[in-house]
């Protein structure tokens, strides 16, 4: 990925682990300042920033619950205070993702997912939008999921929220297209991360067997796509969903 002549700042939510960590490393590699948002794992966030700094990059940890309006406002002001602005917003934070039968599901189980994939993106975008409009440049990249195409059973609470997230992406992209701000969504397949530590080898093998490329993806596969969408080269791409899953879905 080529570096921009301008050092831009990327705010990555949920960056202390999993996909967020890989995205943070890749953003730093492109020359961006990296604002590492975390909710509870301060040690992991600080360790990530230290590793980026050791490689010559710039990174700083920022604690906030991105589902809370006041905390999101504080978060964005703190990032602006350290780095001067926010040019790239990567909406990655997530929470528990329980499998529930229809009988077990409640409205609250849906709201839990909507908090991360509808409320949080809205709160974040409203905070970064004024600065992006002023600069005539912005990249909003949401981390979605292939589940919206697959319709995984016992997962409707999560699937529905991911579908809503895609709807946000498309509507925001059309509204913001004249301003130089792009909005896209990266939809990973099953990428093993820390949250899947208890997954068995048999479960991983069963999934990989159904993937046309016959393997699991890696976090860096997602990070590289995010880095491209954040770059100047992607300036004419907006409102799109990019499935990074080895061909597991074709939509």
Describe, in plain words, how this protein is organized in 3D.
The chain is an alpha/beta fold. The chain has a single domain, classed as 3-Layer(aba) Sandwich (Rossmann fold), CATH 3.40.50.720. The chain contains 8 helices and 7 strands. It has helices at 18-29, 42-54, 69-83, 107-135, 147-150, 156-176, 201-210, 219-230; strands spanning 9-12, 33-38, 58-63, 88-91, 138-143, 181-188, 241-244. β4 (88-91), α4 and β5 form a beta-alpha-beta unit. It is globular.
Give the arrangement of secondary structure elements.
Elements: E1 9-12, H1 18-29, E2 33-38, H2 42-54, E3 58-63, H3 69-83, E4 88-91, H4 107-135, E5 138-143, H5 147-150, H6 156-176, E6 181-188, H7 201-210, H8 219-230, E7 241-244
Parallel strand pairs: 1-2, 1-4, 2-3, 4-5, 5-6, 6-7
Highlighted features:
single chain; 251 residues; alpha/beta; Rossmann fold; 7-stranded parallel sheet; 8 helices; 15% strand; globular
